[in-house]
Specification:
A hairpin with a 2-residue loop joins β2 (45-46) and β3. The radius of gyration is 25 Å and the shape is globular. α2 runs antiparallel to α4 and α7 packs across α8 (260-277). By secondary structure, the protein is of the alpha+beta class. The chain is built from 15 helices and 17 strands. The protein has two domains: 2-139 and 429-492, no CATH class; 145-327 and 361-423, no CATH class. The strands form five sheets. Strands 16-4-5-1-17 form a five-stranded mixed beta sheet. A five-stranded antiparallel beta sheet has the order 11-6-8-7-15, sandwiched between helices. The structure holds zinc ion (2 copies). One zinc ion binds at residues 125, 127-128, 130, 440, 442-443, 445.
């Protein structure tokens, strides 16, 4: 199981250190009794509700669910959310923009994410009747570490298996000068201009190189507002594009080499022209930016990924949607209300001029981090050209390749796409942790979700019975003795099922 643990800590910063205070029975319970293992992790959708997953890792067989409330990040939000909301206008509005209602919603939901008191699903083994509870997840984008991670995995898997054509792809990272960043912070709709400008750059570049004005590359762009240090608002693009373009007859024309310097110039031209037309910047700003010897704009292209390398494709796609911060880099001291965030990998990174450690007050840190929460309905993932949502929808409807179209996704198409992206939580867990959360640990039978319980009186009754209602706000230290939960089957009789 060492591989699970190393995967856990290295690649999934949303997960805290193993906790040992929940443990299942090692041997079958006595007749008429059933184990309940409180589950507090995330993943998946059941009906209209999102359900958290029960397992992140298991050391020696039994499930050992983690407690999301045990993280420093949770403590930081819980301790400082109220004060942040109160002082925000006076202290942070000037720097970070208005307090957007979406921030309040996302933080509130995050504090309830994985909290059994907000309701849960009952999962039962039909054979030996072992049970556990799955709490609901908040689905918070770009904020809740576990929900964002689930989204990242689902996105990478769905796009790799259903969308990517069997052709080479390359990753592009596109940045803009510091001078321009602030405009995107205060005018979030402009983020769409950023991705649109780069897509058109790619498209024109390929069309010109192939001498075909109808040829279209397949492009997926993730708009990110954060870099290595989450307190810095750093709008930039992560992009996965076909190494070539598809002509109208459906034939793919590879183009394995691009001049990123020329690409940068074309992108700069398009973006500045658009910002000027929108009245965001003046001609003086344009002239100034064009006069710089080091333009501040950059287009980086990574090594191509071959079509058969599914793992590399998914890695790149995951990177496109990586979360704003890593829990493993965050330390919160509740006594001094201070956050330390390790920015560098190991020690300082003088090349980038960044300190290895950001230390600031928790309020300052949170005020900066919430700037990465997108507005409600704002899509930071965009599909263009051969991969545009219009084309995806047409292909799906007709069951065949249809004429290529270039269009940004409509809300309906985006919703359809996201619906398809929702993979079953059990399959995703299998994928991440190499274990099947729905396989009964006692007898190996596939377990089933037997009911969703979200009526507050019923939730309370069950949790009181299991002695889980008055659980401390945050989990006890991990050296607490293991707790088992046993209840008799009669208890649930008569409750919603
Ligand atoms: Zn069983
Ligand atoms: Zn969540």
């Amino acid at each position: 199981m060492a591989s699970l643990l190393s995967l856990h800590s290295r690649d999934f910063p949303g997960a805290p250190a193993p906790q040992a205070h929940f443990q299942s029975h090692a041997t079958p319970c006595t007749a008429g009794a059933t184990c309940i293992h409180p589950a507090t992790n995330n993943l998946g959708t059941y009906g209209t509700r999102s359900v958290r997953y029960a397992v992140e890792y298991h050391l020696q067989g039994p499930y050992r669910p983690r407690n999301p409330k045990a993280s420093d990040f949770y403590a930081c939000v819980e301790d400082n959310f109220e004060e942040l909301e109160q002082v925000y206008d006076d202290r942070y509005q000037r720097q970070h923009g208005f307090w957007r209602p979406v921030i309040h919603d996302v933080l509130c939901k995050f504090l309830d994410c994985g909290d059994l008191r907000q309701g849960f699903a009952r999962v039962r083994c039909p054979s030996c009747r072992l049970e556990f509870l799955l709490a609901f997840s908040c689905k918070g984008r770009y904020f809740c570490p576990s929900c964002h991670q689930k989204r990242m995995v689902a996105f990478a898997e769905r796009v790799r298996s259903e969308l990517l054509e069997h052709v080479p792809h390359s990753q592009y990272v596109v940045t803009i000068p510091k001078t321009l960043r602030v405009y995107f912070k205060h005018h979030r709709k402009l983020l769409g201009l950023l991705s649109r400008s780069f897509y058109e750059t790619l498209k024109e570049f390929f069309q010109q190189a192939l001498q075909d004005r109808d040829a279209l590359p397949g492009v997926i762009i993730s708009i990110q507002t954060y870099g290595r240090d989450p307190v810095v608002f750093h709008p930039h693009l992560h992009c996965l594009a076909t190494d070539g373009a598809t002509s109208r007859d459906g034939c793919f024309h590879p183009l394995p080499w691009v001049d990123t310097e020329q690409m940068m110039r074309l992108f700069r031209h398009k973006l500045l022209r658009r910002l000027l037309a929108e009245g965001i910047i003046t001609q003086a700003v344009v002239d100034l930016l064009l006069s710089w010897r080091h333009p501040g704009f950059s287009v980086f292209r990574g090594e191509p990924v071959e079509p058969d390398d599914a793992a590399a494709s998914e890695r790149l796609l995951s990177y496109c949607l990586h979360p704003p911060f890593a829990l493993s880099r965050l330390h919160y001291d509740s006594d001094s209300a201070t956050v330390c965030y390790h920015v560098g990998k190991t020690g300082a990174d003088p090349k980038e001029g960044s300190a290895p450690l950001t230390v600031c007050s928790a309020l300052d840190w949170l005020a900066a981090v919430v700037t990465h929460i997108p507005d409600k309905g704002q899509q930071l993932l965009r599909y263009y050209g051969h991969y545009s949502n219009v084309r995806q929808a047409l292909t799906k409807r007709t069951g065949a390749h249809s004429p290529l179209q270039t269009a940004e996704q409509s809300p309906e198409q985006e919703e359809e796409f996201r619906r398809q992206c929702r993979c079953s939580w059990a399959r995703l867990i299998r994928k991440i942790y190499e274990t099947d959360p729905l396989t009964c640990t006692r007898c190996g039978t596939i377990m089933r979700i037997i009911s969703i319980i979200d009526q507050p009186p019923v939730v309370k009754k069950i949790l009181l019975h299991l002695n889980l209602w008055d659980a401390p706000k945050r989990s006890p230290p991990s050296n607490n003795p293991p707790r088992d939960f046993v209840y008799d089957a009669h208890f649930f009789r008569g409750l919603a099922e």
